[in-house]
Design brief:
- The chain is α/β, with parallel strands linked by helices and 314 residues long.
- It has 11 helices and 12 strands.
- The chain has a 5-stranded parallel beta sheet with strand order 10-9-11-1-12, sandwiched between helices. A 4-stranded parallel beta sheet has the order 3-2-4-5, with helices on both faces.
- Strand 6, helix 5 and strand 7 form a beta-alpha-beta unit.
- It is flat.
- The N and C termini lie far apart (59 Å).
- The chain folds into 3 domains: 111 residues, 4-hydroxy-3-methylbut-2-enyl diphosphate reductase, catalytic domain (Cobalt-precorrin-4 Transmethylase, domain 1, 3-Layer(aba) Sandwich), CATH 3.40.1010; 83 residues, Rossmann fold (3-Layer(aba) Sandwich), CATH 3.40.50.11270; 98 residues, Cobalt-precorrin-4 Transmethylase, domain 1.
């Protein structure tokens, strides 16, 4: 029986970004240097496949530092941590490695600078996300007002509208954030923003790529974790860009091919914490059911890389 034809349209760039690459390499290098186990506070990145792979190599993932025994190294996740976390590690004499993405660290420094200059800070981000918790934890309680959407931006009430700044989570929807910033600038004309967008290059590039392929696809599949902010935003961007059948899956085994219905063109991308092997896995599953043709649409090349911490370079 002949297979139905299917064109898979691969969005590029997709998958791992430089910050995720660096975070994973930090855990692997720490295991190689210090031996098993190396403890990691929170998921190093939001991807179960990656986390399980590191567990097999000797990483132990915990929720809090209190679960880390004395005398073993601990790694902080790529999302960043409040200042209280390294302070607690130092008070216990723990060796720690900070895998915070340098682009998140940039936002941390912006928050500190605004606070030092007497400005109250509006942070655009998602409540409870580790990156937001880490960024807000760079300054004293109450110094940051969290805004999640346009409605929040319309009602936020700073102590002094003339001494106000905004920062953003790095993995937001570019379009949603633009709309929120427009409201803040309308309400508070003197609000100070970052010199360069806080939304990271990888988030922006992956959203542009999805916008490019979505109008020409019958369905779009985003490979990523359900707790991955940038992956969830890709699903939303695809749906808004002309492909209502946009779904998030973690692995090929999760794909309900029958539920997708009759499709001739399937767009595929991956969140910034999803490895390419998971894309290949989905393509292999599609080949079992369809006569697959691959078409890749590249919107830009990425050449960004970040160095490992000095403790791991010797």
């Amino acid at each position: 029986m002949s297979k139905a034809p299917l064109t898979i349209v691969l969005a590029s760039p997709r998958g791992f970004c430089a910050g995720v690459d660096r975070a994973i390499l930090i855990v692997e290098a720490a295991i190689e240097k210090y031996g098993r186990p190396v403890y990691v506070r929170h998921e190093i990145v939001h991807n179960k496949f990656v986390v399980d792979g590191l567990k097999a190599k000797g990483a132990v993932f915990v929720d809090e530092l209190t679960e880390v025994p004395d005398g073993v190294p601990v790694v902080f996740s790529a999302h960043g941590v409040p200042k209280s976390v390294p302070e607690a590690a130092e008070s216990r004499g723990l060796d720690y490695l900070d895998a915070t993405c340098p682009l998140v660290t940039k936002v941390h420094r912006e928050a500190e600078l605004h606070h030092d200059m007497g400005r109250q800070i509006v942070m655009i981000g998602h409540k409870g996300h580790p990156e937001v918790i880490g960024t807000m934890g760079q300054v004293p309680d109450g110094a940051v007002l969290l805004v999640e959407d346009v409605a929040d931006a319309e009602t936020v009430t700073p102590a002094d509208p003339d001494k106000l700044a905004y920062i953003t989570q790095t993995t937001l929807s570019v379009d949603d954030t633009t709309a929120i910033v427009e409201v803040l600038k309308r309400r508070f004309p003197d609000i100070v923003g970052p010199r360069k967008d806080d939304i990271c290059y990888a988030t922006t590039n992956r959203q542009i790529a999805v916008k490019t392929i979505a109008p020409h696809c019958d369905a779009v599949m985003v490979i990523g974790a359900p707790n991955s902010s940038n992956s969830k935003r890709l699903v939303e961007v695809a749906a808004r860009s002309g492909c209502e059948r946009s779904i998030l899956v973690q692995r090929a085994a999760e794909v309900d091919w029958d539920a997708l219905g009759e499709i001739g063109r399937l767009g595929i991308t991956a969140g910034a914490s999803a490895p390419e092997v998971l894309v290949e896995e989905v393509i292999a599953a599609a080949r079992d059911r369809f006569d697959v043709t691959i078409e890749e649409i590249k919107v830009t090349d990425e050449t960004v890389s970040f160095k490992l911490p000095p403790q791991l370079l010797d």
